[in-house]
DUF192 domain-containing protein
Amino acid sequence: MLSLAIVSVVLAVIVNLPIWYDSHVILPDGTSIDVEVADSAEERRVGLSGHAWLDADRGMLFLFDEPGRYGFWMKDMDFPIDIIWLRGETIVNVTPDVPVPDGDDLPQYLPNTAVDGVLEVNAGFAQAHGLVAGDLLDIDLP
């Protein structure tokens, strides 16, 4: 009976863990982070909202087929993030320290130009790594 309870707990933990793919983003300072890729409409809609936290060396990479001014919001988010707007592998803008929403107030965050990718990381990450517009990232997808 105890072993069944242990198996149930282990399975519950495994099921609730985010899925990390063999995708990485290497920053100009040499730091490599593992990223979960959101490249379907449904994955982009959900984003990080299903995550209770984000490890310091993890992020979510949103990829779009065509460049555009895609809006992002913080619906059902439990932690603040930095939004790093990309055109190819080049950072075009950084929206730092995006807060957890207050109640039903869900502001939309937009890039200042058309983008085809967005990297979401923990708040403060961009500043800690000196990321600014014009920096080139190395995006390694499977």
About this structure: Residues 4-20 have pLDDT under 50 and may be disordered.
